[in-house]
Specification:
Layout: E1 2-6, H1 10-22, E2 25-29, H2 33-40, H3 51-60, E3 64-67, H4 70-75, E4 79-82, H5 98-110, E5 115-119, H6 127-138, E6 144-148, H7 158-163, E7 168-171, H8 175-184, H9 186-189, E8 195-198, H10 200-231, H11 235-243, H12 264-278, H13 283-305, E9 315-319, H14 334-344, E10 348-352, H15 357-363, E11 368-369, H16 373-377, E12 382-385, H17 390-393, H18 397-403, E13 408-411, H19 418-423, E14 427-429
Parallel strand pairs: 1-2, 1-4, 2-3, 4-5, 5-6, 7-8, 9-10, 9-12, 10-11, 12-13, 13-14
The structure holds uridine-5'-diphosphate-glucuronic acid (UGA).
């Protein structure tokens, strides 16, 4: 089995490396020659725990290669995975399919012999059919099938998620394609991981509906956290109390500063637009989007409330900038909204993130970037934890307090034990907890 992976972003690089780990010959293709040159040199362009080991093992076994030559890679492949970006079109909120279309047309021209083209990018419903049309236009005599195989991996846990998924979803319409896809996922089927075969539109909806439902859980618990603060309840106990109901489940009920990242914001918006286009309004998801946007904006004011609402001339130490821990990704990070609100309120912002500062510097130029957490707390009137990096949970709180001008801590991830913070002399405020 020879696999070509088109696109070496999170999904493409992780999937390609993991397929090589399954034992297949994989060639990863990207139009970005600089990125391919780095990968050829063994340099991983993203921070993703464990990915370097899988890539290195694949390269050493000579099962994983990188190239800019799409034609060469596609012509010798049995399956070609499309893992190119589908960013939001800012004018419409819809997923922009220009990279998918360009890749599909190039694949079409390069096809030789029966090939399965697999959509792994997150794409609107109906895209598999459109990809088929673009390939057919580029190469009217080619023999191929287009399959939808959405990916459910999380940044920061991508390798682990790819190798141990809850399920694999494969949308297709031909037995021939089913044989190829079954062979590709046999290593997971052997471990009793459910492989769900559906129609292509169904697979496409599963991806959007899955992400939207997870975003909804987060939006829901965040609003419940506000209620808990208002009535003197504890949201962590509420999350336990409802999560133990097996119909609800305990996961994705951690309150925080609002969801960010490259997926939930983009996919919830795309689902709403798809619903509008199809005459099936997705009003629940629409309200999750609005609730999350308001939450991200409101977090700056929450930090200000620790100082009585006034930030003019005050210094805020921000711990964490990325949209979640174990990634260097700043896309749609709540930190961006928080920083802009803090600056609007007149604060000086000192920030530290273990991996995200290089990315953050492109987006946030009025921030003082610091060496470590203690440096960020130096002279601060309030320290706010924005991202749940484990090193923040292990901070020496006395030392942190001694760096500060006044001892206020706002913990937007409920990462610190309030009793420990209080014992260290910090005025502590978490999310959804009255303490
Ligand atoms: C998400 C999905 O979890 C993956 O299954 C999916 O494959 C991926 O999108 C995608 O479509 O490619 P990801 O965006 O990497 O993965 O990150 P998550 O771990 O889902 O977190 C998303 C956001 O929700 C983060 O800002 C995180 O801090 C927040 N979150 C998550 C909470 O605020 N509370 C929670 O309980 C969980």
């Amino acid at each position: 089995m020879r696999i070509a992976m088109i696109g070496t972003g999170y999904v493409g690089l992780v999937s390609g490396a993991c397929f090589a780990d399954f034992g297949f010959d994989v060639i990863c293709v990207d139009i970005d020659a600089g990125k391919i040159a780095r990968l050829v040199d063994g340099d991983i362009p993203i921070f993703e725990p464990g990915l370097d080991h899988v890539v290195e093992a694949g390269r050493r076994a000579e099962r994983l290669a990188f190239t800019t030559d799409l034609e060469g890679a596609v012509s010798s492949a049995d399956a070609v995975f499309l893992a190119v970006g589908t960013p939001t079109d800012p004018a419409t909120g819809r997923a922009d399919l220009r990279y998918v279309e360009a890749a599909a047309r190039s694949i079409g021209k390069a096809l030789t012999g029966y090939t399965v083209i697999v959509d792994k990018s997150t794409v609107p419903v109906g895209t598999a059919k459109r990809v088929e049309g673009w390939i057919r236009e580029a190469n009217p005599t080619a023999t191929f099938d287009v399959v939808s195989n959405p990916e459910f991996l999380r940044e920061g846990a991508a390798v682990q998620d790819f190798q141990n998924p809850d399920r694999v979803v494969i949308g297709l319409e031909s037995d021939r394609a089913r044989d190829v896809m079954s062979a590709i996922y046999q290593p997971l089927a052997n471990r009793d991981i459910p492989i769900l075969f559906t129609g292509r539109e169904t697979a496409e909806v599963i991806k959007y509906a899955g992400n939207a439902f997870l975003a909804l859980k987060i939006g829901f618990i965040n609003e419940v956290a506000d209620l808990c603060e208002a009535v003197g309840a504890d949201v962590l106990e509420v999350a336990d109390g409802i999560g133990l109901d097996s119909r609800i489940g305990p996961k994705f009920l951690r309150p925080g500063p609002g969801y960010g990242g490259s997926c939930f914001p983009k996919d919830t918006l795309a689902l709403v637009r798809t619903g509008e286009d199809a005459g099936a309004p997705q009003s629940i998801v629409d309200s999750v989007i609005r609730s999350n946007a308001a939450r991200k904006r409101g977090m700056g004011d929450k930090i200000a409330s620790a100082l009585g609402g006034t930030l003019a001339g005050r210094t805020v130490g921000l711990l964490g900038l990325t949209f979640k821990a174990n990634t260097d990704d700043m896309r749609e990070s709540p930190a961006v909204d928080i920083v802009s609100r803090l600056l609007e309120l007149g604060a000086v912002v000192r920030a530290y993130d273990p991996q995200g500062m290089e990315e953050a510097a492109h987006l946030l130029d009025s921030v003082e970037y610091c060496r470590d957490s203690y440096d960020a707390a130096d002279g601060a009137d309030v320290v706010a934890i924005v991202t749940e990096w484990s090193e923040f949970a292990a901070l020496d709180l006395e030392r942190l307090r001694d760096c500060m001008r006044s001892p206020h801590m706002v913990d937007l991830r409920n990462l610190i034990d309030p009793a420990r913070a209080r014992a260290a002399g910090l005025n502590y405020m978490g999310i959804g907890r009255v303490i």
